[in-house]
Amino acid sequence: MPLPDLSKYEKFVDLTNGRMRYYEAGSGDEHTILIPSTILGASADTFQFVIELLAERLHVYAIDNLGFGESTRVLPQGPLFDVLVDGIREFMDLKSIGSANFIGEAVGGWIACLLAYESPHRVRKVIADSVAGMNVHGPMGPGTPENDFLGRYNPPTKEGMLKSRMRYVYP
């Protein structure tokens, strides 16, 4: 499968802590921000195969986190969570996005969840994909029926993972 040409969607915005690259596709008020992980090589290109599909129904912004991808790579304070979350909030302000849906991949999911915690009025929904370290027991602890998420947990399988990923490509 050839790689999609996303150059027509590529844009940059200057923020307090650096320049952020992003892809913007689609239109309307159903703003959806895609946040990649923060591993070496992670960028908005993580979402290259779903941007145009999602843009058929949503106003999509796939960002490069500050410190990664084609965004400013060197940050004086480093790519700390508060710097990354503040960068997304500032991006939303500059783009006049009052609230948005978020899809975060790995650490991008953590960033989306932190934004939801700090600014719940800015976040409609969060999809946190492949996020490690989440508390599976809920606030009441293990053994509490309404909070025992672990009791309903099914170990991942190859087939289940493939089906999950294909939903992003073929909704």
Note down, in words, how this protein is organized.
The protein is α/β, with parallel strands linked by helices and 171 residues long. α1 links the parallel β3 and β4 (59-63). The chain contains four helices and six strands; from the N terminus they run βββαβαβαβα. α2 (81-94) crosses α3 (107-118). 25% of the residues lie in helices and 22% in strands. The protein is globular. Residues 136-140 and 146-153 have low confidence and may be disordered. A six-stranded mixed beta sheet has the order 1-2-4-3-5-6. It has helices at residues 51-55, 81-94, 107-118, 158-169, and strands at 10-15, 18-25, 31-35, 59-63, 100-105, 123-129.
Short précis:
The protein has helices spanning 51-55, 81-94, 107-118, 158-169; strands spanning 10-15, 18-25, 31-35, 59-63, 100-105, 123-129.
- Helical content band: 25-40%
Main sheet properties: 6 strands, mixed
- Count, helices: 4
Radius of gyration, Cα only, in angstroms? 17 Å
Oligomer: single chain
Please identify the structural class as seen in this structure.
alpha/beta
The count of DSSP E runs of length 2 or more, i.e. the number of strands, is 6
Average pLDDT: 83
Strands of the largest sheet, in order across it? 1-2-4-3-5-6
User: Globular, elongated, flat, extended or rod-shaped: what is the shape?
Assistant: globular
Taken in chain order, the helices and strands follow as EEEHEHEHEH
Unreliable segments (pLDDT under 50, ≥5 consecutive)? 136-140, 146-153
N-end to C-end Cα span: 18 Å
Strand content: 15-25%
Tags for this model:
6 strands; alpha/beta; 6-stranded mixed beta sheet; globular; 25% helix; 4 helices; 171 residues
